[in-house]
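To: structure desk
From: M.T.
Subject: fold request, one chain
Message: Could you run this one when you get a chance? Sequence is below, nothing fancy, just the single chain.
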Amino acid sequence: MEQGNDTQLSEFLLLAFSENQPQIQPLIFGLFLSMYLVTVFGNSLIIMAIIVDSHLHTPMYIFLSNLSFVDICFTSTTVPQMLVNIQTQRKVITYAGCITQMYFLLLFSGLDIFLLTVMAYDRYVAICHPLHYMVIMNTRHCVLLILACWIIGILNSLLHSFLALRLSFCTNLEIPHFFCELNQVVHHACSDTFVNDMVIYITAMLLAVGPLSGILYSYSKIVSSIRAISSAQGKYKAFSTCASHLSVVSLFYCTLLGVYLSSAVTQNSHATAMASLMYTVVTPMLNPFIYSLRNKDIKTALKILLGTVIRNRPMDLPP
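Reply: Done. Structure tokens follow.
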């Protein structure tokens, strides 16, 4: 293939589902449409429940509502485009569309990591320093933490996007994925990618390993504090406040680790694309279930929300 001088004319082919037989394409379309609707509906319920119930206007649930919003945006970055491609049988995404999708993928995946880290810090303060919790996690501090997550996420996304813009691409590049993943896009460039690769590795260490270390440190302190509690009931109550968050963290990082291990161990691009579905589609879909099924406060808030909707439902007028 010849290297194109004008990258704006380049097109990318997303081939993750191109090998599937035509007769199962409607099944795949229905499956992912259902998963997307469940993700949007479930996370929207969490957000509305937290807004409606004033008892949930606390740091923990403020962070959770932000995480739910980010999960909706994260899934919306990839699934609608994938559904259009499956329905139209057209696998092409424009150069501008690919860079835009890559930017938002980096932004919202980074925000997921940062918000999970902030939530771990919140649980650390609540369990290890309960008497100072409201002083440390005041409204101003919570706003600053959320703002810092967004600023770091935006700067990281802009950095990778601007570096990708300087690359020259060949025409009609085939990406064995269902979205424009950063590594796939960079490694299909016709120009030198040394700078891009170095920045990817450095930012991955700083923005992925760093937050994970913070989460592990927070939970090591939490476990130590819980072990120091004398009563079994006290231990259960303390652990139950962070069980949902620990489940979500484990699910997110295990699936993310699975993606990169599968890409490193096997050269099967189809297997890697399937593994990517876990943290881009499945994990955001499961988060509302994890928080609602394991959290009494969320269950109560959902009942209040449902009662509010029923009370405000317009009454049928008599004939």
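Reply (cont.): The longest strand covers residues 11-14. Let me know if you need anything else for the meeting.
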